[in-house]
Amino acid sequence: MRRMMAICNKELQAYFLSPTSYFAFAVYVLMTSLLFYSSFVYYQPSIVDYRLVLGDTLSMLLFVVPLLTMRLVAEEFRQGTDELLLTSPTRVTEIIFGKYLASLAILLVLILCSLVYPFIMSFYGKLDLTSVWLSALGLFFLGASMMAIGLFASTLSQHQMVSAVAGFIMLLVLWMLDSFAGNTGSALQKWLDPFALTKHFDNFTKGVLSGPDVLYYITLSGLFLLLSIQIVERKRWR
Amino acid sequence: MLEVRQVSKVYEGQRGVHQLDFTMERGEIVGFLGPNGAGKTTTMRMITGYLHPTEGSVLVDGVSVHDQGRSVRSKIGYLPETPPLYPDMTVQSYLKFVANLRDVPAREVKLRISEMVSRLGLQGREKQLVRGLSKGYKQRLGLAGAIIHKPDLLVLDEPTSGLDPNQIIEIRDLIRELGENHTVLLSTHILPEVSTLCNRMLIINQGKLVLDGSPQDLGSAMGDRFKVSLEVKATEQQLLQVLSPWEKAETEIIPIVATSSSASSERSLEATSSQFGASGEVVSSAPSTVHVRLTGETSEDYREELFSLLSGAGLPILEMKRENLSLEQIFLKLTTSEITETEEALTPGENLQDADDTGSETSLDSTSDEGEGSK
What we know:
The structure holds two protein chains of two kinds.
Chain A: H1 2-17, H2 19-42, H3 51-58, H4 61-69, H5 71-79, H6 82-87, H7 92-114, H8 116-121, H9 129-155, H10 160-180, H11 186-192, H12 202-205, H13 211-234
Helix pairs in contact in A: 1-7, 2-3, 2-4, 4-9, 4-10, 7-9, 7-13, 9-10, 9-13
Chain B: E1 2-11, E2 14-24, E3 29-33, H1 40-47, E4 55-60, E5 63-64, H2 69-73, E6 76-79, H3 91-101, H4 109-119, H5 135-147, E7 153-157, H6 165-178, E8 183-187, H7 191-197, E9 200-205, E10 208-213, H8 215-222, E11 227-233, H9 236-243, E12 254-255, H10 260-276, E13 289-295, H11 303-312, E14 317-322, H12 327-335, H13 337-345, H14 348-374
Helix pairs in contact in B: 3-4, 3-5
């Protein structure tokens, strides 16, 4: 536990020190605020609903998450610091979870940033608070599984950019899974639909907390964390 | 303490380590030598649990590194070839991080950090970013990280590479000091380092262990015949008359091919002898000096006998030097298969000159060791 927290702390420090994370945050805040401006301020909808903004901002995660996770493991391999981690009594599980925990903390900050918009909206009408809070929760679950995928991509290479691109592609495929099969056979679509990243997000925005949705995101995160652990552990057998 | 049992590591399409087998006792400082790509780093990585062997096992205090990895790894301190540092951390936060990773008891962390800082001469740099440290200080910080948890076994991969002579001396002193309480395995390219630091050395070549022994008795073990080079004030004929019937250590006399320096010294000697020589004496008959190299039948020491033999014959010995294989020669002999063949094919003169060269190299380094002593 102590070792895990040490790694988590180190990663958080690295987040605050690296220009990449500031860049990612800047991109995220800039793009979401532009989208907010166009869909709320400029367009002036007749109702005040967080969902009007949320759908647009959601896709920004697709670009920001790989930027935030690419460094996590790849940088250790590049600097040779994996030798320190892997020859210390630390378990690989602790290493991966420590890093994942740090990325979750960053995700929380990211979500706090996006909560500014419903706060602004609340001045212009009555918001459905259940929907807002559950959307934030859904955003956290969605973001958490995306972070796990990004972390996994980061274990695949020692080059940050390669990891970022790999992570982005993996996320994109999972994101588009429902629309890939959209125009083809309906059987395939039915089969693929439940695996799509955003499919399980809809219920949260409706203010419905359903077990399968939560389970989907937790399973997805767990799966990719497990894969990351295996990939790093595999390094010992090269 | 450490047992490496029949360890092999096979890489795809690359040579790795084959059937390595050695043990280390507590308190030993063992030097690990080998040319580049011989498998030193691979072996060290297997010992520290960074890599798992394809075959065989590594045991520390009887516990296997890859079955009980965590408990074993907590007993090992490892400094890789490039110290594993995070450039954005400060010296202090790095040490704290490593202390946490390596299970240093929480209440001792502060104490250990200040201990490491003073021991490795990092005072005044605690708040400095690792990025801004010089190579020597990075090496020290890496070493501090490797010993902060007081490991039983310390594995150092080329700890002095890339350091300036002063830093090398400091790091060597530190390793010697550490060797009092820890078992140390260190790899190095610098051969005299092994003879000054280690009480045992292992030479590895192409993934195989080719030599295991202490640096001191290695020379005599490898040079199986007792060799002496002599400078005698006599003519070649006189000397041969005395030495050819000498049977005790049957000798093969190798007259030296006059090198430019020895030729000039001979000439000057002749000049002086002609100056001091009584009038009327023929210069050519005046005894000049002869260089010979004697190779004994066995490794038995025959120098005393040789002295009395020659002094009895009235031939003064100006210089007598025992010729041992230098560490470099042993290393070359063991690690380059072609060298041993070509060495025999070489003319003796060239061979000796070769030995002189390596000798001067070692003496150069021993002067730096003297500097260390005066420090």
